[in-house]
Specification:
heterodimer, A: 294 residues, mainly alpha, MetI-like fold, two-stranded antiparallel ribbon, 13 helices, B: 369 residues, alpha+beta, Rossmann fold, OB fold (Dihydrolipoamide Acetyltransferase, E2P), six-stranded mixed beta sheet, five-stranded mixed β-barrel, 20 strands
Amino acid sequence: MAEALAQRLWQRRLMLALLLAPALLWLFALIVLPHIDLALLSFRERSAPRHYQPSLTQYRTFFGEPLYWHIFVRTAVISAVATALTLLIAFPIAWVITKVAQGRASAFLFIVCLIPFWVSETVRALGWLILLRESGVLPALLVKLGITAVPVELLYHDATILTGLVYTSLLFMVVPLVSSLESLDNSLIEAAYDLGANGFAILRDIVIPHAAPGITAGCIVVFMLTLGNYLTPNLLGGKNSQWFTELIYTQFIVRFNWEQGAAFGFLLLALSTTMVALGLRLSGQRFVDVMRRS
Amino acid sequence: MTTPDLQVDSLVKRFADYRAVAELSFSVERGSFFSILGPSGCGKTTLLRMIAGFITPDSGDIRIGGRSMQAVAPNRRPVNMVFQQLALFPMMSVGENVAFGLARRGMAKTERATRAAAMLERVGLGGAAHKRVDELSGGQRQRVAIARSLVLEPTLLLLDEPLGALDLKLREHMKIELKQLQAAFGTTFVYITHDQSEALVLSDHVAVMNHGRFEQRGTPQDLYYEPATAFVAGFVGANNRIAGRVAGSFGDIAEVATAQGWVVRARKSGAVAPGAAVEAFVRPEVAVLERDAELLPQEHPRHAGAVQSLLFDGANSAVLLTEEKSRFEFRVALPQTGRFADLKVGERVYFSFDPGRALCFATRDAARG
């Protein structure tokens, strides 16, 4: 009897292990292993050809070189601004999809948000190039309307990078917001209205507290994607973009300095972890709750 | 005479080609408990939401405390609503829920906490202010929802089937509690429900609503004993409905013959022409049951039938009979003495009823439904 029970328990464990195996294998092979290797790389230094020794030089270089610092902080700040802008734009969209539009109109709006993502990110970024370059559509339009005398270059500004980043991230903010607003019972809004609240008070006291996990989840996803984005800042910002991922790319591919690149990679990981932790702390939420509820 | 707390004048609301509320006018006296009773889809929710301000009427006016509510937003009306699903704010404590409306009026934090606590005390939830909403039982949540509205001292409290989500036992209990709360606060309650028992137990006045109109307004007793229309007779309380044609007439009593040839007598309500299609209504408790036909009252027509099924329900027990000639199914309430406790299915019994206590109405033409 007890033996049979023990065997059944063992069988269930085996089943669970088998079910989880692909995910665990994937995590281990593609995330844990490379990171261990990168960590080892980042903590060594070439002393002679084909000869390495443990050292903190890579990290020291980062802290000692103001340019690296500057790019690091700049990437963090622009990512944070892009996240905030995405939230501001996505919230009304999610609101319209869940609370204003009915039935098919709501599904249609959601699909409209999704359609740009059928095209690859590269093609989308190239689309921006066609629109914004000096000989492009928008500068020509501005001249025609008499707003500018000659075509102006709209590419390679910080605002251009921001626009591209927000555009790329929008869906990743809209999806968690839609799911959290969908679960908001309309009668709560009506009850608050009935009890004397105006639109602003309803938003502040009812809607935002309810949607908080969705807002946080969206912000985390968008911030991480933006921080680690390479293509959009590079194509839209050109040489001026000064994006931290480009620094990593340069170290690995252009200069063959894998040690330095690995150290930069770890610093970026530390940055995103710190920012997410800070955001959660500020909004008084727990990561597990956020991921479960949204 | 004081101004009624609620006056509704020729109110109309259409949705596409469907008339939800049709030319409705009524008023509700200060401090009374007024119920609107009707089947789902009769327009009662639309009416309530128009009073609360969530739906704009197509025409007509709503006056609350004598003041017209045209162009007054829901958050500025002296009306509060208890929602069907209660709609307590889960992100706030019980105390914050009750203080929510006070905060919107700009009351200071300490003052509103005191008021909220006092209100919770009055509804029997003293000391629950710090609790989370999901820590409360169904009945307690109900009381919080009412407290949250009453703390604002509204002229009118609207209740949208607030007992619908509760289980039967709690519903019976909350009925009594609601009535006591209304008496204690003296606030005018407007209550909508599809449950006739709730409406009868709770209300001073009930309006029976159907197809966007009031079929009848009156005290619960009026509706039960003197229904004005066939719809009210069928909707309020249990009733045997017998459709037939007028075969004869004796003063205010009509003789109704069913298509199967059963003849019953009932008092005429309204104009009932000879030969016209009518519906007669006989309440189960109006009929008397006997095993021996000779024991039935001499002055009323007697009918015979066989027991089809026994519906035992304590004090509300009844028996379903099949009338001998027409196979018509007829329900008779059993006396509470337990005299017929040994009744068997298939047994032959006799019954009669006072025609003066049964009513017959001319059948409405199908167009008015």
